[in-house]
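Example record for the data management plan.
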Amino acid sequence: MMNPMTRRSFAALTGGLLASAKVFAQAQTQPQAPLITRAIPRGGERIPAVGLGTASIFSQDSPATRDKASAVVQALVKQGGRLIDTASSYGDAESVLGAVISAAGLRGKLFIATKLESPDPQELKRSLARLKTASVDLLQLHNVSDKQQSLQPFRDWQQQGLCRYVGITSTFRGDYPAIEAVLQREKPDFVQIDYSIDNRAAEKTILPLAADVGAGVLTALPYGRGRLFRAVQDKALPDWARVFADSWGQFFLKYLLGDPRVTAVIPGTGNPGHMADNAAAMRGPLPDAGQRQRMVDFIKVF
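Corresponding structural encoding:
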């Protein structure tokens, strides 16, 4: 069985911890290229194209976890980011985020998305209390697996001002038929799906359908649950990729952002240096269609 390769273990192996720290330090002092933002199809509001995912990162509330979350959220905001994605089922993540965001007075600077496991008013009430906010920007139904799923309760909460947008999510291939059916019928404001350079199934059905119905797209698991860092752990970033990326993390994120149907990518991290490196993917040039195909071909050989 292969050992898991996390962003942290990959960075330690390749010297990337120092590189991430350098990116973080430079980001504080050097002029930056314009921020890449994307319009939410329904309404046209623009949001920065790189956010923060929180699954399995802030799941246990403690002083150390809150310190880590505070540093990462501050790094996100300093680099121009706004989007934080969490869920009621991510352990204590909502509570941790609510505490650090409230303490720093950052609620007005953030686009907060959370997920419910069911259309349960009590679950929503608990999430809002944990996040210390009267409303969220995006409320999503998590892991949709029923083709007949109705989003009417979410629409009702939207009308009540408890959320500004509604969405659906899944990171399971077996749920794609249900995601497609609900997208087509319910036309949510957002769909969140697993998508990475080595997991491109969403390009065939979900992305085209989202564009057709006017849904924004958030991409989870952009590093393929660590597979991608494992594949390149002993490889140098090729010279031709340095035109648009300064690290492997940016390489993987910019592949996704090279598709204009992607509204934002949400890589997870508990490291502020990695957050700065991720955020750098929403500045500078993006790969064109030919470069994206070259990226795919390059990764295929590993």
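Summary line stored alongside the record: The two ends are 17 Å apart (CA to CA).
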